[in-house]
Amino acid sequence: MRFGVNYTPAVGWFHSWLDFSASDTARDLEAIASLGADHVRIFPLWPVVQPNRTLIRPQALRDVATVVDIAGSFGLDVNVDALQGHLSSFDFVPSWLDSWHRRNMFTDPEVVASTAAYVEALAAAVADRPNLLGISIGNEVNQFAHAPHPAPHDITAEQGHAWAAAMVAAARRGLSGGPGASGLEARRGSAPLVTVAQYDAAWYDDAQPFGPEHAADHGDATITHSWVFNGTAALHGPLGAGSVRHGEYLVQLAAAWNREPGRPNWLQEVGAPTNVVPRSDAASFTEQTIRHVAGAQDVLGVTWWCSHDVSRSLADFPELEYDLGLFTNDGALKPAGEAFAALARAGAPTPTAPPSTALVLDDVLPDGTPRHGTRADCAPGGRFAAAWLALAESAADGRGPQVVLRSRLADGALRGARGIARIVEVPGDLDGTSLTVAHPATMP
């Protein structure tokens, strides 16, 4: 399992892309490497790189490539996020997509084509770097598609699939046709991944147009972002089982939609938000979260949010954003950073086999039609979430169960390939407070 960090520059936060400093970046990345991390995720701001629909700035692309090179000098692989998009409560969309020029970012043909051109150019700019881990289409771009965003770009699920497919194809064109792509055989490890990242409404909100299928059907790995300020910590407490196992739960929930056994599952963003996790509990929360995730199957890695606290000189961030770093803004290692480093340096043992028990998620009605309300059942406080947690806490090996969709329960080959030996049904009278787990049934 890989250990990584979402890189938040100590000087200027992500606004630092406006006046890029290689020396500041090197100082930050050297500190991240000292934790034992093997990769970082970086966030070039979309309006900085593509300020006009037909202008992609060559210097901005060179700056991104320079960051990848600097990271490589410290032994770090890099995942590059394309569409920022949304970061820490702020939206960063180009002026050609807002206000007087507002058009639907997901469905307008000219906007989609121009966005794809940017994704392709960004991928091409770093395609030949031996330490390129991959390209993510953007940071939680699904938050633009529905409430609570104040001005959502409305789409249907089908339109979301079309948009995601177009962006993934653009990234792959860039990776295969970049100026140094012929030298990809020199890459460290495997070929770079293309991924689509969503925030957890994809798993928990039935009204969100981007759903589990968008994560599992596009790109090369299924991405989850785990934040316990979504009601989880309020329900379970900062160090309650439901909180420290939330990342593990999301990984297992997401894996249920993977059509191919063995598809990588990546907890690409997780942190200890101080609005619900007291500073005194942050180190324990970090350690327990990572240890539980390490017990799941096919985990590509954990990428912690984030490297450095936001400077108090920057205004208008939510309070928790100033204290999410593994380092303080001036570079001092925090207790959560110490906990992360201890785990990263030791490395996570690879489970010898996936959890053999699977909990059935009712994604369809008895007649096989899709069931509305499935995602609400999975959300914090939902009946499925409660059943999963009860089963996880009662497991002899301490590992949470896999999740199997009812629509795929009859696929014996899929169950066998996933190592599922027995199934558990969610009790019909489960209300989230009084938990009784059904006796596991022997698989046919």
From TrEMBL:
This protein's name: Glycosyl hydrolase
InterPro entries recorded: GH (IPR017853)
